[in-house]
Amino acid sequence: MTVGGWLREGSPRVGYCEDDMNRILQDYPLTERTILLKSRSIRLTTIEKPDWFLEQLSREDSEGRLYLPYWTYLWEASIGLARHIEKLGETLAGQCVLEIGCGFGLTGIVACQNGAEVVFTDAEQEALLFTRHNARQNGVGNRAVFVQMDWEFPCFDKPFSHILASDVIYEEHHWQPIMRLLQGLLAPDGIALFSEPNRTNALGFFDLICDNGFTYRKSVCRVEFDEKTATVCIYAVARVE
Ligand SMILES: C[S@@+](CC[C@H](N)C(=O)[O-])C[C@H]1O[C@@H](n2cnc3c(N)ncnc32)[C@H](O)[C@@H]1O
């Protein structure tokens, strides 16, 4: 994949390393899940009993706030966005797509299967190791790169035609950095696809980006997940012309 050249110097790129995955296999009890889409199913290796890990891996961030490692869950918003991307079909073929906060990588994997090349990013190296493993087991490892990136510090020099962001706007202090990332990394005619589980505060983020040169279209879908049905909102964000 050519995107390596877009990386700012010094950015850590998670390459394939058998030892790291062996460590994951030892450190985490794993479970295999199959996510059913209309035209295909995606096999994901995820963590069994993520609640326990949430507690074990929680810590204070640099501002003294409680930081919870939410990458240990697969979120319903990612299933809603995966289905939306599936419907886009060939639109993504040949495009270079950025996914932020990728977790287990579901949405970017579907984009790869639709012909995109995807740069998966997350602040957590472990999440990227799972994502890489999941990309390989769904046959798209060759269309993907994995970059450890905090959205406070974007590490690319060129903009992307598409940005995928499933369930990343849950905390208000993330809104400004994510908005700045959009300003810096979304191509002039690009589209960013956000999904979130219909939280009451989400509109605050979309008000913020509308005040800063973006517009959006919202759609709503229902997702069956872990024997529940959830509402997921999808927002297609573009720059105001
Ligand atoms: C709620 S999870 C969503 C994961 C996945 N997109 C999904 O929908 O299943 C939020 C994700 O954002 C990542 N994350 C949290 N803070 C971040 C930051 N400052 N920069 C980059 N990623 C971050 C977490 O590691 C986690 O993978």
Brief descriptors of the model:
two-stranded antiparallel ribbon, 30% helix, alpha/beta, Rossmann fold, binds S-adenosylmethionine, 11 strands
Let me know the CATH homologous superfamily: Vaccinia Virus protein VP39
At CATH level 2, the architecture is 3-Layer(aba) Sandwich
SSE pattern, N- to C-terminal: HEEHEEHEHEHEEHEHEE
Ends distance: 31 Å
Instruction: State Rg.
Output: 17 Å
Helix content: 25-40%
Overall outline: globular
CATH class, anyone?
Answer: Alpha Beta
What is the mean pLDDT?
A: 92
Instruction: Please count the beta strands (DSSP E, at least 2 residues each).
Output: 11
CATH topology: Rossmann fold
Structural domains: how many: 1
Which structural class is indicated by helix and strand composition? alpha/beta
* Sheet with most strands: 7 strands, mixed
